[in-house]
């Protein structure tokens, strides 16, 4: 085997092992915090209004709150990676304030 190829394989294996160890450490730390939970650690509920971004003619966008479901609640986990089907809070807090894009589909009836 050539030296550059062997070096590349070792780097890929080392990177995969490092990511696996960080994920395992994050999971163990989460499980340890689950022994004595508080209302916001390790899981937290975040509530925010649902804002809809409605595309209009001439490339304008209007923003409205959703009348049928004005508030949305998410459960997040305080960790680096997603665990137990919940997104990390650092990721969810960035994404929760973004409006939901809406598209109006026009269908022709024959």
Describe this structure in words.
This protein has 110 residues and is an alpha/beta fold. It has one domain (3-102). The chain has helices spanning 3-35, 89-95, and strands spanning 43-49, 51-55, 61-65, 71-77, 87-88, 100-102. It has a 3-stranded mixed β-sheet. It has a 3-stranded mixed β-sheet with strand order 3-2-6, with no helix packed on it. A hairpin with a 5-residue loop joins strand 2 (51-55) and strand 3. It is flat.
Strand order of the largest sheet: 1-4-5
- Residues in helix, %: 25-40%
The quaternary state of the protein chains shown equals single chain
Shape: flat
Radius of gyration: 22 Å
Strand content: 25-35%
What is the number of helices? 2
Q: Provide the succession of SSEs.
A: HEEEEEHE
E-strand count: 6
Structurally, the number of domains stands at 1
Structural class: alpha/beta
Major pleated sheet: 3 strands, mixed
Rounded average pLDDT:
91
Residue windows where pLDDT falls under 50 for at least 5 positions? none
- Amino- and carboxy-terminal Cα gap: 66 Å
């Amino acid at each position: 085997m050539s030296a550059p190829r062997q070096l590349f394989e070792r780097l890929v294996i080392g990177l995969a092992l490092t990511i696996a160890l960080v994920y395992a450490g994050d999971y163990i730390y989460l499980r340890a915090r689950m022994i004595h939970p508080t209302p916001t650690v390790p899981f937290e509920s975040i509530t925010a209004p649902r804002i809809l971004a409605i595309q209009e003619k001439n490339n304008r966008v209007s923003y409205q709150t959703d009348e049928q479901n004005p508030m949305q609640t998410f459960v997040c986990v305080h960790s680096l990676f997603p665990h137990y089907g919940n997104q990390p809070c650092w990721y969810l807090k960035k994404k929760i304030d973004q409006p939901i894009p809406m598209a109006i589909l026009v269908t022709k009836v024959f």
